[in-house]
Amino acid sequence: TARNPHSVDRYTGGSSSGPAALVSSGLCSVAIGTDGGGSVRIPSALCGIVGFKTTYGRTDMTGVLCDSGTVEVASPLTSSVEDAMLVYFAIAGSRPMDKLTLRPVPNLLSLGSVKIGKYTEWFHDVSDREISSTCEDALKLLEIILPELEEMRTAHVVSIGSEEFTLDTRTSLALFGSFSSTDYVASQCIRRRIMHYHMEAFKKVDFIATPTTGMTAPKIPPSALKSGESDYVVSAYLMRFIIAGNLLGLPAITVPVGHDKQGLPIGLQLIGRPWGEASLLRVASAVEELNRPSTFYDIL
């Protein structure tokens, strides 16, 4: 995997590690990845850039290797929210052969009346309280209480583990072969309930904010340089807050809002209503303008 430009002894996150490292280093301003379990938002947060996942069905999936699942979306990694807007308008829409893409009406929202909520139960479920506090300081947040949040995590694991993957991903996720058709159907029932809970929450707030990840970029153990590693504790912290975007198909964006004591980037995630990309990008742009840390480039 690519090294993190902010600290070369730390992970970039994945699976879009290369694109995130390139954009963060200033070698390019835009890259494209796919996000089925935070694969764009996680590396973007760890590298201090913008990662934007659209509503499921919004972007053209033609040519994407894994284009038949129910959680995967082609998504941009960019150096700014403005760049994310430009790429979004280029890849949004459909082609006749693309059976997954829809053309809904844009959802615009006045920024003067925006209400942003947070998962009361989850928001501070991080490895270091500094992460959630930095995100909380960036915005004035309303508390929302949603049932079955832990079940949402389980349903996402079953869903993403039961759908089509490339060969290398299938190999690393071989443990998902133990899921039965009954498990998959049960996870879809949970998905429907969780979607209902979120739509009820969106009657009270316009967006939901979370830390993008539950920890900043973790160190790469020396042993991992030779044989790789699978650290499920670290993975759980990194994937802690990204689930709703994938399981429910909601649009979500990560924006850098600061650094921890070690100088590592902290990302804030905003989750919006289905098809609410236009309003989500406008709010993200405002957050970026108010909180964005100094840009880091280390091309050499």
Automatic annotation (TrEMBL):
SUPFAM superfamilies: Amidase signature (AS) enzymes. Residues 2-153, 181-281 form the Amidase domain. Gene3D superfamilies: Amidase signature (AS) domain. GO terms for biological process: N-acylethanolamine metabolic process. One of its GO terms (molecular function) is N-(long-chain-acyl)ethanolamine deacylase activity. InterPro entries: Amidase, Amidase_CS, Amidase_dom, AS_sf. Pfam families: Amidase (PF01425). GO terms for cellular component: membrane. Keywords: Hydrolase. Belongs to the amidase family. PANTHER family: FATTY ACID AMIDE HYDROLASE, TRANSAMIDASE. This is Fatty acid amide hydrolase. It comes from Panicum virgatum.
